[in-house]
Design a protein that fits this description.
Coagulation Factor XIII, Chain A, domain 1; 16 strands; Rossmann fold; five-stranded mixed beta sheet; 9 helices; alpha/beta
Length: 389
Amino acid sequence: MHPFKRTGYEHMSALNEISFSVGNGEFFGIVGRNGSGKSTLLKCLAGIYKADEGEIYMDGRVATFIELGVGFNPDLVARDNIMLNAVMLGLSPAEARKRVDEVIDFAELHEFTDLKLKNYSSGMQVRLAFSVMIQVDADILLIDEVLAVGDAAFQQKCFDEFHRLRDEKKTILFVTHDMPSVNRFCDRAMLLERGDMMLLGDPDEITDQYIKVNFPQATLDAAVAEGHARPDQAAVIVEAWFEEERGDRHEYLPQGRPCSFKALVAFNQEVEDPAFSMMLKDDEGSNIFGTSTIWKNEESTGHFMPGDQAVFGVSFDNRLSAGRYYATVQVAQRGGGQVVLDKRENAATMVTTATRSTGGVVDLPHDVEVRRPVRAPRPAPEPAGDASR
């Protein structure tokens, strides 16, 4: 477009001097901000990209959960695509043929096996691709945040399969932004930052450092810009979210199952024993449920210095009726919570999924019965007397 315009170039190393080893049967997490090189590293391990320098050694069959559905032919039916992808992933044609029915069963696409993929929805294609991947008897799994696919029921099915692979001691490299999953699954983890390995160690240490790298500056600046916080504020509510019972962030939470609310708070000044509270409202703004560390008679919530962070959590069984709900969170000084340090209206939202609507606010466990009342027997009538008397 502009042939005479001077053009400058800037060199950027996607990955720089990354060195680590993963043992057989180890669950290894890889975390970092967007653009830190996580997916590039996984693609190098998978052989999709070739590293400019250094060596990569892999011992065993590898299955890549990086871009599900790559290699699918939209003009072929599901059965043919399963065969094609399974062979590409290392199975023999005979093995692939045997597993077609198992893939269809897991993907729950029995009615659409003879339908061309170009007529599939995007969710159906991803479900099919994930089902093909797990049927490959791989020794090493490279997973890039593709487990939560499809609707809520199928997502749970995927995570159950994920637990099975872990229990079978498969060697797994897991790229994610979900820190609770790192703490729950990983034996070790690595934090990348702009292509460099910032830290390698225990999951707890990695997740703490990840929070410090991610949230305080960028998110705090955004909160100030949007008017949610002042630069001189003693404490700032950085973000809030809901989690399902396994600890994964999720907006849609099934009725009758455990769940939790979490909020990340950053401190800019010294604060002694701050009080945290949360109020849950429905879509009409009515208060449904609230709690506070003061009401729970917490003796001490901690002593926080500038730069410290805290995660405030509320765990509960989801007895709410089907619908959308909003959480307001607040952090205040001790003394009845009169001095509010920060408050975020509608900081997080959740949707209760249920198979029925009761019309009430909550759906409490209960029994229903209909029966006839037991009545006392009627007295027998007296015999009729002599009419002549």
